[in-house]
Amino acid sequence: MSRMSEIQGVLIDARGRCAHYGGARDVVANRCATCGGFFACHRCHDELTDHPFGRMSTDAPDSVLCGACGHVMGYHVYSQASACPACDHLFNPGCSLHAPLYFEV
Predict the structure, then answer these.
(1) Which residues of the chain have a pLDDT value below 70?
(2) Which of 17, 24, 34, 47 is the most exposed place for a label (fewest CB within 10 A)?
(3) CA angle, 84 as apex, 87 and 59 as ends, to 5°?
(4) What burial letters (b/e) apply to 64-96, b meaning 16+ CB within 10 Å?
(5) Distance between alpha carbon 54 and the CA centroid of its chain, in Å?
(6) What is the DSSP annotation of 8-70?
(7) What pLDDT, on the 0 to 100 scale, is given for residue 5?
(8) pLDDT, tens digit, for every residue of 67-95?
(9) What's the pLDDT score for residue 1?
């Protein structure tokens, strides 16, 4: 099973983009601390689960997954990068506005 197949969400494409966020740079999935799953976005999580999204510690080494290549990284690496450190796929800079939804910041 590839890492990308771990991404859960509504109408997920091959790069982990969902019905809510489908831009070319929307390739990041975040891990829920409550259930441990990677989700394309908080709205997908809300639609598919029966619990609130559990925010991950910023020290967790495995809280973010690149949907372009499957690379897993922690918040500190992800938040400092404009692109995936493994495949150089650009990340959506607007995602930083959602950090408090996914991480204990």
Answers:
(1) 1-2, 4
(2) 24
(3) 135
(4) bbbbbbbbbbbbeebbeeeebeeeebebbeebe
(5) 13
(6) E-SS--TTS--SS--STT--EEEE-TTT--EES-HHHHHHH-SSPPPPBPTT-TTSEEETTT-
(7) 80
(8) 999 999 999 999 999 999 999 999 999 98
(9) 43
Q: What residue ranges do the domains of the chain occupy?
A: 3-102
Residue (of 29, 11, 21) closest to 68 by Cα position: 29
pTM to 2 decimals?
0.93
What gap in Å lies between CA 85 and CA 50, rounded to an integer? 33
The pairing of beta strand 72-73 with beta strand 64-66 = antiparallel
Rg (CA), the chain: 12
